[in-house]
Amino acid sequence: MFFFLHTTLTLTSPYYLSNKNQLSPVSAKAGAGSRSVVAMAGTGKFVVGGNWKCNGNSKSIAKLVKDLNAGEITADVEVICAPPMVYLPKVQSTLDRKYQLAAQNCWVGAGGAFTGEIAAEMLVDANIPWVILGHSERRALCGETDEFVGKKTKYALDAGLSVMACIGETLDEREAGQTLAVCTRQLQAICNEITETDWAKVVIAYEPVWAIGTGKVASPEQAQDVHAGIRAFVSKAVSQRVASAVRIQYGGSVNAGNCEALAKQEDIDGFLVGGASLVGSDFVTICNAARFNN
Length: 294
Ligand code: PGA
Description:
Blueprint: E1 15-19, E2 22-25, E3 46-51, H1 58-70, E4 77-82, H2 88-94, E5 99-103, H3 120-125, E6 130-133, H4 136-141, H5 146-159, E7 162-167, H6 171-175, H7 179-191, E8 202-206, E9 217-218, H8 220-237, H9 240-245, E10 247-251, H10 259-263, E11 270-273, H11 280-288
Parallel strand pairs: 2-9, 3-4, 3-11, 4-5, 5-6, 6-7, 7-8, 8-10, 10-11
Antiparallel strand pairs: 1-2
Bound molecules: 2-phosphoglycolic acid.
């Protein structure tokens, strides 16, 4: 759909098409601002989210839960599954405790006359500890603005949730050399709302829109480059301490085959996985790629 094979891409650094599913930089460069140049290096665990999106039914979800429960998960990873809202209680009562749970969205404020919405307090009340906010599908399809996502993030954190906050550029933006400008604009809107302390409960999910659900994964170097840029931005916009500690997930066509190379990148601290999170054994492999992260 994106005509990658017929397009000359103009990116922040020169790229070539290494194969039909991957864009690669001509020369991998160590990103300025990567964790190695940030004082107090050292973070929490590798963190993998499974974003089930609007997929599944009672039968397929029961099978997925069974397959996930059967999987051996390394102690080196924190795993969070995000089923569709209506299946959350069932998954909560059947999924092994080695997995935490997230909602895929919540409202920007307290509950009330907001038909179809779920308040952050309801998730807390239902013992759901995490929420995914600002996913590109919600930004693009539901009109969520940077400011709205920033306010949602603050509200969810104040209610007691932890947040996987999604950012990422479209293909047009990448081709225009706007990748970091877009990511930092989206992040700035979150920085405008939350305090330095709040960051302890935020994971950043960098998900290039052109890689989501397309099978076109960012190359490890390409993802590392952006992650390092994001970390450098956080260092300036928030603090070195937060930049060093904040976990940055990569999302966009992560699968059982490409997760190892991605996990080896210095500034990749986890994944947010869509399609492959619906296949229990693949998702378990992706979670265990944490072993390759050091
Ligand atoms: P994908 O989705 O793994 O299917 O590309 C990732 C996401 O949207 O979180």
